[in-house]
Specification:
Elements (H helix, E strand, L loop, with lengths): L1 H4 L16 H29 L22
Amino acid sequence: MDNQNNTQEHLIENEADIELSKPSKSRFLFLLFFFGYFIFAWAGCYNLYEHHYVKNDNIQVPDNTLYEPKYK
């Protein structure tokens, strides 16, 4: 019965755990936010590039809707 109550005293703290070190945790969260924002912005720019406006010179405009209309 005495063994069950003292199990928590024998735990070894993990030095790689970010919850134990505030500078390490804040650095990790900053880098996570920075790279997440960077990837989000890059993906948005790439999407705009992929769907950019393509000029088409082959559009036929009726003569009566030109700036100087030509009537029959």
